[in-house]
Amino acid sequence: MRALRILLIVVVVLGALFVIVDRVAVHFAEGEAADKLKSTENLASTPDVDIKGFPFLTQVAGGSLDDVEVGIDDYEAETGKAGQTIRIDDLKADMKGVEFSGDYSSATAATATGTATVSYSELLKTAKSEPTEVAPGITAKVVGLSDGGNGKIKVAVEGTVSSLGIKQTVSVLSSVSVVNNKVEVHADSLPKLGSTAIAEDRIRTITDFQQVIDQLPGGIKLDKVQAAPDGVEISVKGSGVRLAG
């Protein structure tokens, strides 16, 4: 019995030591991965990297991690226009089946899904905020975006009738969707500005617009989008996503 007790104590101590070593190793790996991702993606701040699953060391021995979560507070995405970016807030991505090279210099996830937010103030930069003539003597521009409820965006349009010096602000509810890796805003109905009839294609040059969101980390792409209180919430997904290297 004494020998059995000693054996049990040794097993418990070794198990506890293994857990400690495993947690120290995963903490170190998370820090290294975060630094590598910051450098690779040219981020302003260090992202959060959370390696899931236990034990970590046996996953490393197998050359693959089951689940890695990455969080980036602010990310400047490309818009397709030289020198112009759009800020993505709270980008969170869940990477599955992450395999890494023998020297740990690169890692690729089999699949990735995630979420992020684009504020209305950022999306407003895409809309026409300079007066544009939509009919003789009538100009219009977008002056605000906000949550319209039920997944819609409220687009505030200011029209000016130059001959009368009258300004009028009207709002329309718009649908938002992802089309060819672009966030597309499309008015459900058109605003009436003044008493002059305005052709639909003319007024839609103001109310409808698209925003390219490109070159997200690892090559993930836009999947879905919906309006929310603080901005548009986007879903992203990808396969063969490169975390580093």
UniProtKB/TrEMBL annotation:
Query: Which species is this record about?
Result: Streptomyces musisoli
On the tree of life, the source organism's domain of life is Bacteria
InterPro entries, per database record: DUF2993
Descriptive protein name = DUF2993 domain-containing protein
Q: Name one Pfam family in it.
A: LmeA
